[in-house]
Amino acid sequence: MMIATISLSPAGAKRLIARGLIHEPVFQQALTHGRMIIGVGTTNSYIAEELGFISADEKNRFAAGIVSGGVPCVTDADTRFANMCLENGKKKEVSWEEFIMDFGRDDVFVKGANAFDANGNAGVLVANPIGGTVGGSFGVLAARGCKLLVPVGHEKMIPSCTSAARVMGINRLDYSLGQRCGLALLPAGFASIYTEIDALKTLFGVEATIVAAGGVSGSEGSVMVAIDGPNDAVKNALTLARTLLKEKPLSVPKQSCKECWASANCTFKNKFE
After folding, report:
1. What is the pLDDT, as a whole number, of residue 169?
2. Which of 234, 156, 174, 241 is nearest to 201 (CA)?
3. Could you tell me where the beta strands, DSSP code E, fall in the chain?
4. From the centroid of its chain, how far is CA 42?
5. Fewer Cβ neighbours under 10 Å: the N or C end of the chain?
6. SS percent in the chain: helix, strand, coil, step 5
7. Checking phi first, is residue 90 left (phi over 0); if not, alpha (psi -120 to 50) or beta?
8. 254: Cβ contacts below 8 Å, ≥ 6 apart
9. Distance of CA 220 to the CA centre of its chain
10. Measured between alpha carbons, how far is 249 from 70 in angstroms, rounded to an integer?
């Protein structure tokens, strides 16, 4: 047995999570013999790329709500991709709102998160006043007992999603340096969170523990992970980790402030009253 440590940048962690999740049995079952929706998001863009549905240069178009330039905002609606609908491994040119109506218990919705906690809860920032993807999908998923996979890196771990949800809300916030948002709570048991730890287990059969976080000179947001397992498995994980060091940060520009429908509620460009 062997123990080793690796550091993962946010981009490297997204790549690792994507590679692990697509090999999970529940993911493979829905991908090859069922239905799946991959919601737009930065981590999910790596999943879509790993599956060959988008190119590396198109990942910045597979995102909607983002934190970019230091503020919560959205991408340009004219250039972003829509949520991806897959049936038996093939992309369907249909709206996700229509596609989800045929979901059964073994079908999968893949939705990234902006936060998760040690209790297994996940949180999704919601800027759309009627709930966006969260509002249109999770009632259907809960009612039918479908599977919700939430790929998310440890850079987004917070003390309590429940506490965070209590203070958030578009109409609850008095000011926001960026778009005002609510936080939709995806409770443990409903959402299946999938992190770097799970990916290392899936790919190499090793046990992983987050031991440190942070960095400088491009390593901001990184996590250090200790991996424990058979010698060959740990060495294989180290080999992959070395390649992940070359993963470039994902750059996703926000939309123009001049074209923003929510600019009246944003203090990024507006002065305090």
Report:
1. 95
2. 234
3. 2-8, 35-38, 65-68, 71-74, 84-87, 90-91, 108-110, 115-116, 122-126, 147-151, 182-186, 191-194, 207-213, 223-229
4. 6
5. C
6. 35, 25, 40
7. beta
8. 66, 68, 69, 71, 73, 74, 75
9. 18
10. 15
pLDDT at 257: 77
Between CA 205 and CA 228 the distance in angstroms is 9
Give all strands of the β-sheet with 2-8 in edge-to-edge order: 2-8, 223-229, 207-213
Between CA 48 and CA 38 the distance in angstroms is: 8
Furthest-apart CA atoms within the chain: distance in Å: 62
- Judge residue 248's burial from the number of C-beta atoms within 10 Å of its C-beta, 0-12 exposed, 13-18 middle, 19 or more buried: exposed
Question: What separation, in Å, do the N-terminal and C-terminal C-alpha atoms of the chain show?
Answer: 62
pLDDT band at 69 (very low <50, low <70, confident <90, very high): confident
- Per-residue pLDDT of 205-232, as tens digits, reads 999 999 999 999 989 999 999 999 999 9
Query: What pLDDT score was predicted for residue 16?
Result: 98
Rounded Cα–Cα distance for residues 186 and 174 (Å): 25
Structure tokens at 138: 């999770």
Query: Against a cut of 0.90, is the pTM above it?
Result: yes
